[in-house]
Amino acid sequence: MSDEELEGDVGSLEIKGIIGFDGTTIKGFIIHPDEKHVVYPLGNKVTIQDWTTKAQVFLSGHTNTISAIDVSRSGKYIASGQINHIGFKARVIIWDFESHTIISQHELHKVRVEAVAFSNNDNYLFSIGGRDCGSLVVWDVTQGQVICGSAVAHGIQGEATAILSMNRRGPCFMTAGDNHLAVWTVDKEARKVHSLDVSTGKIKRAILCMDVNERDEVCYCGTATGDVLKIRLNYHHDPDILIPAKHPMTVGCFTRISKKKLPAGKVDLYSLGIKSIRRLFAGPLLIGAGDGTIELVEETKCKGGGDKDSRVKVPSVPTLRCLKSTHVYSAVTSLQLMKKDTVILAGTINCEIYQIDMATFDTVLFVTCHTSTIYDVAFPYNFSDVFATASKNDVRVWSIKTHQELLRIQVPNFSASSVLFSHDGKSILTAWNDGIIRSFTPLTGRLIYAILNAHNKGVSALAITHEGDVLVSGGCEGQVRMWSVTPYRQQLICTLKEHKAPVSAVDINKAGTEAVSASTDGTCIIWDLVRQCRRHIMFGTTLFMCARYYPTDVQVLTGGSDRKLSYWEVLDGTLVREVEGSESGAINALDISLDGNIFVTGGNDQIVKLWNYQLGIATHIGIGHSAVITAARFSPDQKYIVTTSGSGSIFIWKCPQDLIQPSKVKIAEEAEPPKEQKSETKDEVIQDLPTARSDHSKEGDQKCVCRCPCVKKPVCEENGGMGDGIKSPEAKASPKNDTSDKKNGSVNASPKSVSSSGKKNGSVTGSGRKN
Fold first, then answer.
1. Where residue 17 falls among pLDDT bands split at 50, 70, 90?
2. At which of 481, 497, 513 does a domain end?
3. Residue spans of beta strands (DSSP E) within 544-595
4. Which of 345, 388, 406, 700 lies at 20 to 30 Å from 130 by C-alpha?
5. In which ranges do the WD repeats occur (predicted)?
């Protein structure tokens, strides 16, 4: 962020809470030695969170996703390494925990930093590169300079993926990987590093994790095969002697003792390998497997192999007796101990944190969040306690007060591109990249209906009218489609073919007579939903990413890749104003408050900005996102702003109350559009605008073409029970609909009566819009 954005009266948005955790990094969740804070990566930022108050601090300095992280034994330093593009250097940064500043950094690795580790005395930082690098770097923390570097693997050894520092010897550490296990010693004076390969005999394993006992005598290694290698390091009892007295060697390859009888030659291995391993001070091992199994095991004496039935065909010997066990449903990437080893915190690859009681092994889900990019966020109508988010594989409903997940709707292997609540709050509408529009119940997540093949290249945007009977969808092929929807029948009304590229956003005005669609082909189109045709088209030298109607429906606000915020007049489609929304990245999301005084934007610059709509200036900014911002929404009570990002994190910001207090009366009036639309006052904008721009009003035709209740003579009988010119297939099939509509036409003011009368007719046709 530039200094110009901080100048003037620009305030800072206050964070109410953050929902986010990246569990894909091995050993990515670390408890600080003070046991008050936890440290973990979130996108390209390092997050320091107070475990009690949930307050968070973000350390910014990386340019790409963080792939490795470690905290020093004293708690003074944090080290992090990142991923970069092919051919570019990957950065390693050392942070000061107290001041949250960068102490030193280097770019001596290529493409990826696989793992980092501090020495036990905080003097050295060891780091290894990924497959494209293959080098080891020893960094002097106190001097802020590199000591030496070396190739990690040699000969037929594979890449190294794990690193572990010793507990009593500062210059000593271990590296492990695919058919690789070595003990290293740093010679600071000679600026060299020496290695000794561990003798494993005929055992060939890909080692994923390691842990060593407190006296540097024995090391336990978890393998991708699902067994445990026990290594004797053969160090001298004097910790000042750094070179092992004998060559390090393998004691054995152990697996757990099966509870059931297995065929001869078979052993019980951990499914999907051992991802995390911790040795407790008392001796037992804590093992986290790839299938989500967490077990506390102890080593027993190995029985002789004289009996033929006890012999195994693989070198793994069943000597680990399970003491306690639990399951967390996904691969365990981090295991941390706190409260004097009485509580276990387990981080999983599904971005969940479980708290496990060591005594009873009872598991409690402590933190959960999305595992990938969140594409959309939505609030129910006039209800601010919950909101929904759409991401890959699932749609989730969250509590804005507790930040806890209330409901998860899963559709495996597909991504939800858009989510919204129906106006009556009885359904959650979702758009998926498999081309299906799905509707779910908001309490149980049960599927109400699914519109198959809604768009042949995936559904990219959704919007629904206030009555809830007409759905407008946008697809990746560029088409905009209107649907007549009820819980029992969904039918295509028309297909609007104008866009040549994917439709990125769709929004409907309050009257339900118009819709605006934004596309990446550089056009925004205002559609006439009554006549089912194009009304206006706006061109721009940009890829439009978002578009929203102003609350009074007189203007449309758009944003796109040209970093500009454009004000468009709905009456004739002319450009009124253009404001620079960002200096460095595209605008991906925007939303306008209910009173129209302020709006919020977010984009690739990872900055949330709050704007004054009339003045076109930024009043507040929010910093904290670790990836591009993908969606933003005001809560209906205008107390909070929810933004989502490409890293899967959700930020809940407090909306400045001084910006909305003068308009409390106006918000309350606009919260009930049916009553406002039924008023006969001359100040009602929603009622006046459609007829003033329509062709019928110019020709003097007195027929009602608006979808809102008004004082003009209805034409419902002429249109098959629909007051807006949209033919209803249900009304055609049943001539009784006209009679029932006339009976129910006197209860238009209540939204509940709209849905109930529609159900009596067998479809939500338009009895609520009957005049």
1. confident
2. 497
3. 544-549, 555-560, 564-569, 575-580, 587-592
4. 345
5. 367-408, 452-485, 496-529, 580-612, 622-654
